[in-house]
Amino acid sequence: MSDPAPQPLWRTAVQARWLGILALALAIAAVMTAMGVWQLGVYRSKTATATAERAAAAPVPLQSLFSIDDGLPSKAVGRQVTISGTWGPSADQVFMSDRLQDGKYGFWVVSPLKLSDTEAVMIVRGWVPSVSDPAVKAPSGPVTLTGAVVASEAEDSSDDAAKGRVLSSLRIPTIVHLVKYRVYDAFVVQTSAAGTSPAPAAVVPPPPPTDHAGLRNVAYAFQWWIFAAFTLWMWGRMVLDAHRSPDDDSDADSAEGDRGEAPVEPSGTVST
């Protein structure tokens, strides 16, 4: 007599006890998933808050954040700074093309502010509709100004520098070859100063990059989601193991039947 066909896996999974365990596993996984989403929200809140606080902090001297010998630290990007110096010559100005302002394209005017005879900071003084605008004329004399620190843009503009002083990208590595003194590894977008008239239109500093503080919360979020997936995986593994293993109840019944069956006695002989 052939063995009965094995029970399909889904028949095991829909048994009452496994459905009950599944409901519990889904509830636990849902809580863990919600905890992961909450941790991700904490991370986003931290980064947004940190970025806003950095941009809103009171101005500090540029030299207190980093020196001309250092690269631009991420914590300095977006900070308001004060700088005192003397404007450099008009010949050292450069212009950034294709800059949108009030729905119109024009140029950013970038002028050096000399801190000494050998050191300077490149200042984005503002926006003009053309490089021939009267406001392009470089100011002269000493000045103390306030502005926001911005980093170099990614696009290479070295080819533009070979053709003139109108560049497509705001990059310190390009500008260092256009001036005869050392410059800081950052630009400062001027927000206030005792300026001359006419002056370029004020430029809104680009938003600082998101601060990556709070990455620990991202790790926590992924941990919760991994735990949630593991909970459901464990339920599936338990069901599979139960499906593959023999039915203990059936084995017990078989054993009882074997013990209760009387042995067959050999037939005796009839005496005469």
Protein traits:
alpha/beta, OB fold (Dihydrolipoamide Acetyltransferase, E2P), 5-stranded mixed barrel, 6 helices, 36% helix, disordered C terminus, Surf1/Shy1, SURF1-like protein, Surf1/Surf4
Written overview of the protein:
The structure is a single chain. This protein is of the alpha/beta class. The protein has two domains: 10-57 and 211-238; 78-193, OB fold (Dihydrolipoamide Acetyltransferase, E2P), CATH 2.40.50. The chain is 36% helix and 23% strand. The protein has six helices and eight strands; from the N terminus they run H-H-E-E-E-E-E-E-H-E-H-E-H-H. It has helices at residues 9-13, 16-56, 158-161, 172-175, 215-244, 248-260, and strands at residues 60-61, 80-87, 94-101, 104-114, 119-128, 142-150, 166-167, 182-193. It has a five-stranded mixed beta barrel. Helix 2 packs antiparallel against helix 5.
SSE topology:
Blueprint: H1 9-13, H2 16-56, E1 60-61, E2 80-87, E3 94-101, E4 104-114, E5 119-128, E6 142-150, H3 158-161, E7 166-167, H4 172-175, E8 182-193, H5 215-244, H6 248-260
Parallel strand pairs: 1-2, 3-7, 5-8
Antiparallel strand pairs: 2-4, 2-6, 3-4, 4-5, 6-8
Helix pairs in contact: 2-5
